[in-house]
Design a protein that fits this description.
Radius of gyration: 20 Å
Mean pLDDT: 84
CATH topology of the largest domain: Arc Repressor Mutant, subunit A
Shape: elongated
Low-confidence stretches: 93-98, 202-224
Strand order of the largest sheet: 1-3-2-4
Oligomer: single chain
Distance between the termini: 37 Å
Length: about 220
């Protein structure tokens, strides 16, 4: 778990009292620019003459825009030194985010910034599941084989998932929060790393840009 990224996101929320990346970008005096006429560039972070810039493609959906701003803000907080030396952080749908430590750190920051713990825990039934789990543990014999205990936990999980098949989906959580679903996946993994026993944990989807920017044309990037 990237605790630095998580701690930074939590500190940012406490300081600015918002999870809106656009407001935070503005209050940090980072210049937010439009990317136009670009085929594959979703967003970037760079530093020019000691001035920070974040660019977001104008053809983004609102969910893509919010998610990309949070991701680039992560670069601004962690990677300014590299950006100042001439390294621009560019995110395209061709780029696999699991190949880079800096990209995964920016994603972890973004997921923690955009989603409070309860924004995911409540809709997936975590608190109901925890209550069932405590009841199971209270009813287990004080001395029982680990294999038997594991079997009972698995039975509880299967019963819970069957009984709560109508719970909100991860796509719906993303829609409610106006973000890309992949950040819900990242948040679930963060919650698991924090020690929450979740009712389910889908595989982590690393390449959140894979389906982005299909409607862009050309390859020129301009800054307004």
């Amino acid at each position: 778990m990237n605790t630095r990224a998580i701690d930074m996101a939590d500190a940012v929320v406490r300081r600015y009292k918002t999870r809106d990346p656009e407001e935070i970008i503005s209050r940090r005096a980072i210049k937010l620019k439009d990317i136009r006429y670009c085929h594959d560039l979703l967003g970037y972070y760079t530093v020019i003459l000691n001035c920070e810039y974040i660019g977001i493609n104008t053809n983004c959906t609102n969910a893509q825009r919010v998610s990309a701003m949070a991701h680039e803000l992560g670069h601004a907080l962690f990677d300014r030194k590299h950006a100042s030396s001439g390294q621009a952080f560019q995110d395209t749908y061709f780029y696999s985010l699991d190949n880079s430590k800096t990209e995964r750190r920016a994603n972890t920051f973004a997921a923690e910034l955009l989603l409070a713990d309860d924004a995911v825990l409540e809709p997936i039934g975590y608190y109901e599941y925890t209550a069932d789990l405590k009841q199971l543990e209270a009813n287990l014999p004080s001395r029982c084989a680990s294999a038997y205990r594991a079997m009972k936990y698995q039975e509880l999980l299967q019963e819970f998932q069957y009984a709560h098949s109508g719970l909100i989906t991860l796509d719906e959580i993303a829609q409610i929060n106006s973000i890309e679903k992949h950040f819900v996946d990242f948040k679930l993994n963060i919650l698991a790393d924090k020690g929450y026993q979740l009712p389910f944990l889908p595989e982590l989807h690393n390449d959140f840009l894979k389906d982005s920017m299909k409607n862009c044309n050309g390859n020129e990037v301009t800054m307004d």
